[in-house]
Amino acid sequence: MAKPLPPGQARVLQAIAGLVRRGLNPTAHDLTRALGIRPQSLLQHLEALERKGLLRLHPTGHGRPTHLELTPAGKLLLGLSIPLVGSIPAGPLEASSEELAGLIALPGRPGLYALVVEGDSMAEYLLEGDVVVVEKGPRPRPGEIAALLHEGKTTLKYVYPQGKRIVLKPHNPAYPTLELPAQEVEVQGVFRLLLRGREALKALGLLETP
User: Fold this and answer.
1) Which residues are catalytic?
2) Residue 105 belongs to a domain with what CATH number?
3) Residue 58: helix, strand or coil by DSSP?
4) What is the pLDDT along the chain (210 residues), one digit of tens a residue?
5) How far is CA 37 from the centre of its chain?
6) How far is it, in rounded angstroms, from Cα 206 to Cα 210?
7) For residues 9 and 13, what is the distance between their CA atoms, to the nearest angstrom?
C-alpha cells in the first residue's frame, strides 16, 4: 500500500482535483489564489508531487503561469477516472490481458476497474466491444454477473454458488453452463456498470489511452 501523502501535498492535490472537476485546466497561479499560500511553498509541493508520479508540470516561460497535468496515477488516486485494464472473454475460458489500457473519465473509487468484453456468450446483454465496470472485493450474490478466474483463465458469467460447487451461466443459450469446484474459482470482480462500446467512449472523449 502506498504511503499517505503529507498534509500539504494532499491539500494541493485535492485543490487541483477540485479545479479539474469544474472543467478547468489548472495553473500554479490558480492554486496560489485558491490555497492562499506563497508561490515558493506551492512550488515545493508541486515538485514533490511530480517526483511521485502524480503530476506533470508544464512551465510556459518566465512570468507566465505553469500549467498542471494530473498523471494517470494522480487521476486514479483522486477518483477522477476508472482504469481500463484489458479484456475479458464472455465465452469459453480463455487467457485475458491485464494491463492498463486506458482511463475512463468517470468518477471512480478503490476497487473499481473496467474490462472490454470479447466473445458473445453474454449476448444480447453484453456485446463484444462493450466495456464493463466491475468491483473487486464483494462476493457476488446468486444471479449476479462476475469476472472469474479459473486455472489462470478468465470468463464473464452469471454466478450461482451451490455449496462446494459454483455454476457459471451464459446469457446466450448457445453456450453451455459450467459447473466447477468453488475452491478452484476466484472472483475477480462483480459487475457494476455497462458502457456500450469502447469506440463510443472514444467518440465522447471519455476514454484516454496511454
Assistant:
1) 121, 157
2) 2.10.109.10
3) strand
4) 467 899 999 999 999 999 998 888 999 999 999 899 899 999 999 999 999 999 999 988 777 889 999 998 899 999 899 998 877 766 655 555 556 788 898 888 888 999 888 888 888 888 888 999 999 988 899 999 999 988 887 889 999 999 899 999 999 999 999 999 999 999 989 999 998 877 777 767 788 876
5) 33
6) 13
7) 6
pTM, full prediction:
0.77
Among residues 51, 77, 103, which one ends one of the domains? Answer: 77
Cα-based distances in Å from 94 to 43, 45, 63, 88, 97: 49, 46, 56, 8, 10
Kindly report the CATH number assigned to the domain that includes residue 43.
Answer: 1.10.10.10
List the domain range (segments joined by +) for residue 161: 82-204
